[in-house]
Amino acid sequence: MAAQMARRRLIRIGVLGGTFNPVHTGHLLIAQDALEQFGLDRALFVPCCRPPHKPGGGLAAAAHRVAMVRAAVRGDRRFEVSELEIRRGGVSYTVDTARALRAAYPGAEIAFIIGSDSLLELRYWRSIGELLRLSRFVTLARPGWATAALAPQALGLPAPWGGRLLAEVRVGHAIDISSTDIRRRVAEGRSIRYLVPRAVAAYIARHGLYRAGLT
Questions:
Q1: Mean pLDDT, consecutive 10-residue segments, the chain of 215 residues?
Q2: What separation in angstroms does the CA of 100 have from each of 92, 133, 134, 143?
Q3: Residue 5 falls within a domain, yes or no?
């Protein structure tokens, strides 16, 4: 039994964090791209409580955002939802989440899924040195993003992190969908069909989100 466990392949969990205000089709494509491009076993969607780098105005209640993500991923066994940042409360820092995930999934590889914009901003994240030691970062860049022209030192991190991070960059789908645009379209009475899963559109309509005010 011990020999069988030793031979068992490491579970690789991709973590996609965000406000998900609301979750949209682009988020699902990013998660799927990450699973396929980086050999991850599953994607864990982690709605934040309060984002550290964005204003909190216009943020739908946590219960609504979690419910929309659950509706979006329902039926796909590769995707799961975690409320750990919501339960923790306060500002959601990734390093705190990494610590919690290491404790919740002992022995698993934790890989945070980010975009190329976030890759260039990692140097400013709280306790980035500890965060890089605790977890893997995988980056999905837009088609045409000049990865090859970017030198490791351009990331502003001590060696060997710049080189390691750039080695974990892949090209994903071109996705020009934003939660900001979706909220604006709802407020203007325009369609959000095809921008969000049908279940999410139904939830937004049922609860009157993003119209006269947010609850």
A1: 52 98 98 98 97 79 98 97 97 97 95 94 97 97 77 94 96 92 96 98 97 55
A2: 12, 14, 11, 33
A3: no
